[in-house]
Amino acid sequence: MNIFTNLLSQKTQAKPAKRQRRGIEIKSPREIEIMRQSGKIVATVLKEISEMVKPGMSTADLDTYAEKRIREMDATPSFKGYHGFTGSICSSINNEVVHGIPNAKKVIRTGDVLKVDTGAYFQGFHGDSCITIAVGDVTTDAAKLIRVAEEALFKGIEQVKPGAYLLDLAGAIEDHVKGNGFSVVEEFTGHGVGRNLHEEPSVFNFRTREMPNVKLRAGMTLAIEPILNAGSKHTRILSDRWTAVTVDNSLSAQFEHTILVTETGYEILTDRTKI
Questions:
Q1: Distance set, CA 259 to CA 161, 184, 221, 232 (Å)
Q2: Which pLDDT band, with edges at 50, 70 and 90, does 210 fall under?
Q3: How many whole angstroms separate alpha carbon 227 and alpha carbon 1?
């Protein structure tokens, strides 16, 4: 899940850990094992949703299913109630970029580009992940956007290792996105994740000097989440004060994984291929 800049500044900070740097928690082996479980719960829910989505369902149907499954696995939905958000998932369709609110009147149709983002809070730690689903037959351009968004995520993940820098991730993502003719949404970023859904550091998807270029260390846990638009990178917020849409009505796609920085590289804690 992304979060608006003003909400990031207001978020509840994690309690100080014994091993911190610049406010970034280094998780202990016990904490990492818990995060593996929270990540597995998220991965399970998203995999099941990807397999069950069909035209005629509403985004509220998916939200109900996600909450039920998260609770069945002894976790609670990370998003529900977060700064007043009413859903257990964010469900954003076509030109909706992020933070779409599930709604019984929002019916999924063939050709839709559907983003489903969810999180699970398990024994004190969060997992967070997002997928983009092509509903039925989508256009060639939509299929390319979805493919490049997922590729961009892995271009960033592949940079993760101790000693690497966050801007290494950002540059790899930005180059792949722009090299394929799409734009990177800059208003929303990835983030640290753990005791809180949103922690330090911000994980940008483009090169910037706005934030410190954090050096990665083993034990850090990050939510990496590139968001691509087919047209303009700019977004606007609807009257519900949550849903962000493209300003030019172009399509948008997003993928996200919770990642652990290991001693030798990375581990994907929300890996759906292992479910």
A1: 11, 20, 6, 29
A2: confident
A3: 11
Spacing of C-alpha 109 from chain mean position: 23
For every residue of 113-170, DSSP letters joined together read EEEEEEEEEETTEEEEEEEEEE-SS--HHHHHHHHHHHHHHHHHHTT-STT-BHHHHH
Order across the sheet with 221-224: list the strands.
199-203, 190-192, 221-224, 257-261, 266-268
The identity of residue 102, as a single letter, is: P
- Tokens, residue 104: 């019984």
* 3 state DSSP class of 8: helix
Which pair of structure tokens corresponds to residue 14?
């994690």
Report the pLDDT value the prediction gives residue 261, as an integer from 0 to 100: 98
Going by the DSSP 8-state scheme, the letter that residue 273 receives in this structure is G
**Which phi and psi angles does 27 have, rounded to 5°?**
-75, 145
> Hunting for tokens 């208003």 — which residue is that?
187
- The DSSP symbol for 105 reads T
- Which phi-psi region, left, alpha or beta, contains residue 249 (left: φ > 0; alpha: ψ -120 to 50)? left
- pLDDT tens figures, 213-233: 999 999 999 999 999 999 999
Contact status, residue 59 vs residue 100, Cβ threshold 8 Å: yes
Q: Are 162 and 267 in contact (CB under 8 A)?
A: no
| Ramachandran category for residue 179: left, alpha or beta (phi over 0 → left; psi -120 to 50 → alpha) | alpha
For residues 38 and 250, what is the distance between their CA atoms, to the nearest angstrom?
34
pLDDT tens, position by position, 87-110 = 999 999 999 999 999 999 999 999
Q: Which residue has the higher pLDDT, 2 or 156?
A: 156
Which of 49, 27, 1 is CA-nearest to residue 267?
A: 27
Residue appearing with tokens 């990178």: 233
| Residue 12 confidence (pLDDT) | 28
For residue 190, the tally of other CB atoms under 10 A from its CB is: 30
